[in-house]
Amino acid sequence: MSHCRVCSSPLQEFFDFGEQPLSAAFTEPGDRREQFRFRLAVGACPDCSMVQLMEDVPRSRAVHEGYPYHSSQSRVMRAHFEETARGFLARELTGDDPFMVEIGCNDGVTLATVAGAGVRQLAFEPSGQGGTRVHRAFFDAVSAREVRESEGPADVVYAANTVCDVPDVAELFAGADALLAPDGVLVFEDPYFGEIIERTSFDQIYDEHVFFFTAHSVRAMAERFGFELVGVERLPVHGGQIRYTLARAGRRRPAGAVAELLAEEVASGLLEAATRERFAAAVGAIREDLPALLRKLAEEGHRVVAYGATAKSSTVTNFCGLGPELVPFICDSTPAKHGKLAPGSGIPVRPSAAFSDPYPEYALLFAWNHAEEIMAKEEEFRARGGKWILYVPEVRVV
Ligand code: TMP
Ligand code: ZN
């Protein structure tokens, strides 16, 4: 029996993707060693409503093996993080000698912008990469206290695509409590469970995403650790995220948007088991339809390749049973992935240049969260008659 990582109640499982490899476990061709696998399944907590993975993935295995996330590779993401920094500078970093901390700094775009405005900043980043000033440690109570002692209290502790990866929420909140000023805020943005349900974006579910937040579950989690949900903001990036702002309990008046989102979640049935059952049925349909479409295209002699060796695509290929016979290669802009085989599926990864050499007839868009940017960049593919294959919210060719 798996238990809620926030409140310890037994979880109610609602989807099982079966045995899956780690999403970052790209292998060398010819490596015949058996890959580590774990059961990828999701459940919801009946008490605090937190949606989460049923199984823990051993932490040492989950650490990235050399595929750091480079937000600056995407023009849209770079603009997003610059704007994020400007928002903090305008609203939170306005006192005397303000101080901002980021947990896991992506590739440092946010903090570089903050530093550029002359504001003190520091990243907690165990890999030591990315930020201009880096504290080489995971964010926890001990490391947060160290920084508090040497740097003083923080006005903002910010994390993008990080809090949903951290199974030990008690440590996270202990760290925030140790480091934040009395009126400081803990701000984090992660995939929104409401969007996952709305888009049937089941590929947001993989080893590194432990939690799938809603306003309800974040509010409950905050309250448990002496904080309060005082702000929510919808973000268009990565297929629909929410930025949550938490303050120490009673220190700030919650924005109207919090009550609005809470009401919307109730009205849409987001927290109900029937909604999760409908999601399960829709995912089952994609699992049938995607391989069926690819088999049909292969039988008709069409050339199909995939675009973006994303972490998400590991769930798609392994759950839908896609291998090199249906998808001969994935092109990707990350040099460290080139020449390797995608986890589990064994599909080779090739440089972006392989996409146009020559263009395929169909491109399966694994990086659908960057669809607008990629489709604009690959205009020539479409101009020559190429078609994109999308699989969320359902399988279709555009
Ligand atoms: P992400 O969904 O975590 O941002 O991962 C995106 C992956 O897709 C990463 O391996 C890089 C790749 N990618 C491209 O190959 N071309 C692109 O234009 C973009 C935006 C991403
Ligand atoms: Zn719970």
Task: Write out key terms for the chains shown.
398 residues, alpha/beta, Rossmann fold, 3 domains, 6-stranded mixed β-sheet, 12 helices, binds zinc ion
Q: Could you spell the SSE succession in H and E letters? A: EEEHHEHEEHEHEHEHEEHHEHEEEHHEE
Number of helices: 12
Total separate domains: 3
Shape descriptor: globular
Amount of helix: 25-40%
Strand content range: 15-25%
**Strand arrangement, major sheet:** 6-5-4-7-8-11-10
For the record, give the distance between the C-alpha atoms at the N and C termini, rounded to a whole number: 43 Å
Low-confidence stretches at least 5 residues in length (pLDDT < 50)? none
Ligand list = thymidine-5'-phosphate, zinc ion
* Mean pLDDT metric: 95
Class by alpha and beta content: alpha/beta
Q: Write the CATH fold name of the largest domain.
A: Rossmann fold
Number of extended strands: 17
Identify the quaternary structure here: single chain
Radius of gyration, Cα only, in angstroms?
21 Å
CATH architecture of the largest domain: 3-Layer(aba) Sandwich
Broad CATH class of the largest domain: Alpha Beta
So, the CATH homologous superfamily of the largest domain? Vaccinia Virus protein VP39
Describe this structure in words.
It is a single chain. With 398 residues, this protein is an alpha/beta fold. It is 32% helix and 22% strand. The protein has 3 domains: 12-58, no CATH class; 71-273, Vaccinia Virus protein VP39 (Rossmann fold, 3-Layer(aba) Sandwich), CATH 3.40.50.150; 291-397, NAD(P)-binding Rossmann-like Domain (Rossmann fold, 3-Layer(aba) Sandwich), CATH 3.40.50.720.
